Amino acid sequence: GLVLAALFIVLSSLTANHLLFARAARSPQAITDDSANYLPIVMAPPATPTPSPTPTRPAGSIVVDHTSVALFEQIPEEYLQAAANTQMFFMDRSVGGNINDGLTCLGYESDELAPSSCKRYIHVDPTYSSPPSEVDWFHPGGYNRDNWDFQFWPDTVCSEWYDKVGCFMEVVTPMMTQYQVLSFQFSYLSVDNTSTIADVPGGFFSNNANLLDVYDLEAFEAQYADKTFIYWTTSLSRGIGTAVSETFNEQMRQYALTNGKPLFDVADILAYDPFGNPCYDNRDGVSYDNGNTSENYPNDGLDTPAICPHYTTEVDGGHLGNVSVGKIRVAKAFWVLMAQLAGWNP
Q: In 3-state terms, what secondary structure has residue 203?
């Protein structure tokens, strides 16, 4: 009886540990990235999303979110090596390029040896400066990401969310023998208030007759059962936060959890500041000036998750460039994810 009780306590403990994982006052600025130009976004009054309850996380599922960043310093050396030895490929827009830069930053042995672009924690608005510890790291030889490759989307035919599904499959098919882990991310431009990505029916999580969606992605994955495919929530901007982004990202979380997919919850990481406080969109009645442009949008009465101003200096956008904290936090979280895919159980 005592042996069985002790065994039950150990198993309960293991299970519990595993489960722990830029503003004109009259109208919004056009939200663009550095690879394309877009028309200004008209922020229609969004309907309040009513996502379904998040299901219980199945045993063995991997979810990396803002609570996982602190695990970066705890990754055992053997799993750092195993993660570094994993051949990985991901596709994204410009925020993905920022994340890729963050991974390269961590490739330096320490923040002291890294370029200044890797360790800027003082914001143009001191309200949003971060502790210097956010851009602090040391590891002999650096965190080697030489086996982790990033590619921007092709410029011509991959603009809409449903195009990206096909573009991803087309790009990676000839490279399947090169990589063990593959993925892509939808950017915040895919979840503005005009997007159909979260529609039911008609969105990414619907079985569409004439659009590529998650069902096509699943069928593709089934052809490569020995590969791991990471599912991502979207990047976010100061203006996106929208009802669409909130709904889609919750759909993604539910899908990943229900189907046992590894989930890299970038939206969650970006929507919490370094102190653990949630951040919301810029339609909040709070003025902001980055020295070049400013905004003071009226408060719309909604708290829609959006990128924290600590991680971007843009008025409406969400790039992780002028301050380094956001890209370093996401890069650290990515190491946590890759270590778990390599077998680490924090």
A: coil
CB 340 within 8 A of CB 64: yes
Domains parsed from the chain with CATH numbers:
22-341 (3.40.50)
Q: pLDDT under 50 in the chain at which residues?
A: 1-56
State the helix-helix crossing angle for 77-84 and 325-341, rounded to 10 degrees.
90
pLDDT score at 46: 42
**What CA–CA distance (Å, rounded) separates 204 from 59?**
25
**Do 120 and 158 meet the contact criterion of CB atoms below 8 Å apart?**
no
Strands 294-295 and 288-289, by their bridges, are antiparallel
CA-based nearest residue to 113, from 101, 121, 105: 105
At 263 the three-state DSSP class reads: strand
Q: According to the model, what pLDDT value does residue 155 have?
A: 79
Other Cβ atoms less than 10 A from the Cβ of 12: the count is 10
Whether 262 and 228 have beta carbons less than 8 Å apart is answered as yes
Look at residue 325 and give its three-state secondary structure.
Answer: helix
Contact 225, 294 (CB under 8 A): no
Q: Where are the alpha helices (DSSP H) in 208-305?
A: 214-222, 243-259, 266-270
